[in-house]
Design goal:
The chain has about 120 residues and is mostly helical. The chain has a single domain, classed as Rossmann fold (3-Layer(aba) Sandwich), CATH 3.40.50. Helix content is about 45%, strand content about 10%. The chain is built from six helices and four strands. The strands form two sheets. The chain has a two-stranded parallel ribbon with strand order 1-2. A two-stranded parallel ribbon has the order 3-4. Helix 2 runs antiparallel to helix 3. The mean pLDDT is about 90.
Length: about 120
């Protein structure tokens, strides 16, 4: 997302065009909180980050989280596992090492944007 045309941006574009983006209120709030950090100011404007959050919120499927797991070595990342499990995701695409360490998880892949591209879908 921070590099237009980069591997992560291509993965997001592909999911938005032909997949289903699964989120929860918690994961959307976390994304907004992280993207509000000043360290991103030199990469992308706050306004573009705000628009990105709005875009995702408008096209993503909000998943109610009924089943919760506590499996990640960083407990704050369990929210992403919970969305994926409750939404019956095929994969989680992430650069987070704590999540990547769990691959595979309950029949789903946890992969980097580059690995997603290697699947031949971006």
């Amino acid at each position: 997302m921070l590099t237009p045309g980069g591997v992560a941006a291509k993965a997001v574009d592909h999911v938005l065009a032909s997949g289903i983006l699964l989120v929860s209120e918690d994961t959307m709030n976390e994304l907004a909180r992280v993207l509000d950090r000043p360290k991103f100011d030199s990469y992308i404007s706050r306004e573009d980050r705000r628009r990105f959050i709005e875009l995702l919120g408008g096209v993503a499927r909000i998943v109610p989280v009924a089943r919760k797991v506590h499996a990640c070595r960083d407990p704050k990342d369990d929210m992403f596992l919970n969305v994926a499990l409750n939404g019956e995701a095929k994969a989680i695409i992430t650069g987070d090492g704590d999540l990547l360490a769990l691959d595979p998880f309950h029949g789903m892949r946890i992969i980097t944007p580059a690995e997603f591209q290697d699947w031949g879908v971006t």
